[in-house]
Amino acid sequence: MKITEQEVKNVAALANLDLGAEEIHRMAHDLDEILTHIDKLNELDTSTVEPMAQVLYQAGETATLREDEPRPGFDNQTALANAPLAGAGQFKVPKIIER
Amino acid sequence: MDLTKRTIASLRDGIKSLQFSALEVCAEALRIAGAENPKTNAYLRLCPERALEAARRVDATLAAGLDPGPLAGVPVAIKDVIVTRGVTTTCGSRMLEHWTPPYDATAVERVEAAGGVVIGKTNCDEFAMGSSNENSAFGPVRNPVALDRVPGGSSGGSAAVVAQGTATVSLGSDTGGSIRQPASFCGVVGVTPTYGRVSRYGLVAFASSLDHIGPFGRTVSDAAALLQTIAGRDPRDATSAFAPVPDYAEAMQQDVRGMRIGLPAEYFKELNSETGDRIMKGVETLKSQGCEVVDVAMPHTEYAIAAYYIICTAEASANLARYDGVRYTMRSKRTETLAEMYQFTRGEGFGAEVKRRIMLGTYVLSSGYYDAYYLKAQKVRALIASDFARAFEKVDALVTPVSPFPAFKLGEKIDDPLAMYLSDIYTITGSLAGVPCMSVPCGKTPDGLPVGMQILARHFDEPGMFRLAAAFEQAGGFAG
Question: What angle do CA B144, B147, B151 make, to 5 degrees?
Answer without folding.
Answer: 60
